[in-house]
Design a protein that fits this description.
alpha+beta; about 15% strand; globular
């Protein structure tokens, strides 16, 4: 299976081998949900962060849109997406695979010393190491290293070289012992803020605000970076000095941003820049 100038051809070839695929637009990010599926509402139960069963014919829900069905891949509903696609994404966990995404030379050097050799695919700045076996995905398990498997997608960059090895315990341990993919900056609680209680907003107001911020991010169909930053700025301008924001609230915002293709590093940078702008 070699990459061709036509993403659809590559997608059909991958699907025929049992790898669920989806189109990726400029920026290597999935297409946004359609209006009927905004905020992953279709099939979603209360308090769920991931989409439930969806009968939408469109290219929705990022990694959850990935499919091996040729009829879906070439359907009219997907046609517009393929015309705009710049590359093919795939759902590693759906194919029983795990991708260790090594972002730079230091990460590659670490992998060579710490992990068993396996199939390797060159990327723009580093390498993808692909193992046989699925696990939970997690970003930033160590500097320059992400794990992409279930509930995640990776860019297809070719078949790679080397023999694919079984997923080792050393990789599984990274998701357990590694740092959280969400690394929110600490919001200082000013003196007199009521011990962390928001002095001028009710908890219901805060929850509605966070939910609206999540929706604003997940509905973004373009300028995702700018939308994430502006949303973080809006949340912090209202609640950043109150002490009412918790790590859980910030994690929800980071998760929404990562569902649109943002990395943990981009989320952290946007959050830090927003705090700096507001003098927090």
């Amino acid at each position: 299976m070699s990459e061709t100038p036509y993403p659809l051809h590559t997608a059909l070839s991958l699907a025929a081998s049992g790898v669920p695929v989806l189109p990726l637009r400029r920026g290597k990010v999935p297409f946004g949900n359609c209006s009927a599926c905004v905020d992953n509402t279709c099939g979603r139960r209360p308090n769920m962060k991931t989409p439930g069963p969806c009968r939408c014919p469109g290219v929705c829900h990022a990694w959850a849109a990935a499919t091996t069905e040729p009829a879906v891949i070439v359907s009219p509903a997907w046609a517009a997406a393929w015309r705009r696609a710049v590359c093919v994404g795939y759902h590693p966990g759906g194919a029983g695979l795990t991708v260790v995404d090594l972002d730079d030379s230091d990460a590659i050097a670490w992998a060579r010393a710490a992990l068993p050799a396996t199939r390797t695919v060159p990327t723009t700045r580093g390498q993808h190491w692909i193992y046989r076996g699925a696990m939970a995905s997690r970003n930033a398990v160590r500097p320059g290293v992400d794990i992409k498997s279930t509930m995640s997608y990776a860019r297809y960059l070719g078949p790679g070289t080397g023999t694919m090895a079984d997923l080792p315990d050393a990789v599984r341990a990274l998701a357990v012992k590694g740092p959280s993919p969400v690394r929110p900056a600490t919001v200082a609680v000013p003196a007199g803020a009521g011990g962390g209680e928001c002095p001028h907003r009710t908890r219901a107001y805060l929850e509605r605000g966070i939910a609206m911020a999540e929706q604003r991010i997940t509905e973004a169909s373009s300028a995702v970076h700018a939308t994430v930053y502006r949303t973080f700025l809006a949340v912090l301008s209202t609640h950043g000095r109150c002490g009412c924001l918790t790590d859980t609230h910030v994690a929800r915002l980071f998760t929404a941003a990562q569902s649109k293709g943002e990395t943990a590093r981009h989320c952290t940078d946007a959050w830090t820049n927003a705090r700096t702008t507001l003098g927090l």
